[in-house]
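Supplementary Methods S3. Complex input for the beta-D-glucopyranose-bound model.
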Amino acid sequence: MKKCITIALALTLTLALFGCTKSSTPSAQPAAPPAEKISDSAGESTLVGISLPTKSLQRWNQDGEYLEKELGGMGYSVDLQFAENKTELQVSQIDNMITKGAKVLIISPIDVSTLTNVLETAKQQDVCVISYDRLIVNSDAVDYYATFDNTIIGQIIGKYVVDQLNLENNAGPFNMEIVSGPNSDATRVLFDAAVGEVQPYIDNGQLVIRSGQTDMEQTATPNWEEKEAQSRMDNILTAYYSDAHLDAVLCLNDSTSLGSQSALKAAGYGTQDNPMPILTGQDCDIANVKAIIAGDQSMSVFKDTKILAAAVAKMTDQILKGETVTVNDTESYDNFSKIVPSYLIESLFVDQSNWQELLVDGGYYTLDELQ
Ligand code: BGC
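Predicted complex, serialized as structure tokens:
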């Protein structure tokens, strides 16, 4: 029987016995101290496969680097692959990891619904699967999910717009547009949480979306591509804002925020007479923190990828040692095949008021990197 299924059952039993469901203050455990090389029965170092979507975004490079470092420090061999945002390439890379004998797969899917077959192979070969950051759907082979809490991130982003426009006291109306990620199940939780915060003000007319583009499909950015976000914003500005000021862009991550900024600048925003709108983001990529400092982007969400990587490395180690795996949510994430036991990490917003304290004094970036 698959090793990590046994552990998941043990976990369920533990939770049932102690009536414990979700820890209210999830926190990552420190990674285990460096160990000797951990080997399987044939004396080979135990292999962990890591499949990430693309090298083109700063965050995935960091995730890969930190995961590799943590797992290497624990004595595991690591096969780290990036799939250039190409679904077929990701499938073949994962297939290859299984062939090479990986015992655990840590996967952040490009398309959350196209890994069903390859994960069936993983399951047949007793390989455990941790869905990383994005939840793989339509597969009962997904054993665990580890992510930043996307509901909280969405709420932070949406609330920021509400607070900055002071919508509780200022009737407006203000013009706003929404820039989302791919129209997929992986974006749904984030989108719903962010839009949920502004929806009452759209409904009562304080926020006006002149483009009329409000749902996930209409506001989508394929693959979170900066250029896609830029050309959509170009079109929106030309078609709907030649005689009106855009006051806010509810943007769901940093790459799409950069694309939106380029379009806004090209349309003449960013001057004293024509200030940039309130513009949100997520990830605190260096280019975006620089934009926050310069006043081109209002905020971003700080997701400390070191903490996520350390937590996932620990989960991997627990799986491979047959220990109870640390999770703090056993209810929220239904991947349409099962409820996936999850480990959720909280995040914080960064803006001009706190970037130095959180990112520099906290040791995430040096001041030089941000200049
Ligand atoms: C991640 C974001 C990231 C986006 C684009 C999402 O799954 O949660 O942090 O900006 O993918 O890569």
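Residues 5-35 have pLDDT under 50 and may be disordered. The chain has twelve helices and twelve strands.
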